[in-house]
Here is the input.
Amino acid sequence: MDISGLIDSRQLHIFNALASTGSFTKASRKLFLTQSGVSHAIKALEKELGCTLVRRQGRNISLTEAGEYLQEEGFKILKSLGDLRSELEDADRWGKDGTRLRLAGSSRFCQELLPGVLGEFHESFPLCRMEVYNMYTPEALEFLLKGRVDLALTLKPEKEDRLDYLPLFEDKLQIIVPTGHEWAHYGAIELSQISNQCFILPSRNSYTYRLIRQYFKRLGMPISSFVEMSSVESIGALIRSGLGIGLLPSWTVWEELDDGELVALDLPESEIKREWVISYSAGKKLNSFEETFAGLAEEFCQASDVFL
Here is the structure.
């Protein structure tokens, strides 16, 4: 990047003081500079920009059209620089008094896990700032590999030697149907009828979508009709409305199953199992914040009735 044409922030600050006071004398007093120093800075700025910014009228000044524009835009720039300084100072204070823990994971999993973990975590580390990014496993792992998060709550991917994992729990996908569906009454799935169903599936960007497509490919039964949704909540809502059926782990819709709105049925022929893990960079030694969070997450998942 060529920086030779950039405006000097010090010159911009001096110009802003001159424009706001309307006087070299007042600007010099405000900035604790000599009048000569203010004058030289303005002349240097005008030379660099190639335009006249102020008209000198005795002890006072008036702005040219270019000067008025620079005053308006320059104020925004100076304010942004001031805000940036304040944010960096805040970040520095956090770094001294506490730290941050950046997490990425699926929205539904975080919804079940974090309320049970963060309360106890913050008792141990009250000054730790949390950042949580909701995204599917492939995106979360990409964030992790780029160093944009510290830990990722993900499904364990295949063949990824750049990461290490701490196991949390295993689940399996089941066919989820509304209570009025014929399979709900039979208590079983008719394999020959699967290709006639409309499936409500997670986004094709998700790891689960890939597992589902691999499953039906193994069966030799392609899905002819399906709708992609970006969240488990949306998938559950469409299933309840009777617009289709889904493949979900029961813990993601446990409330609807308990209320009798939905029914979970085992897949025919074989299972689609998934392993949930805490992912982190291979070879990394977890700090006390990361280690504590990981331990609490593991304890919660093993003790929770939801994930069983």
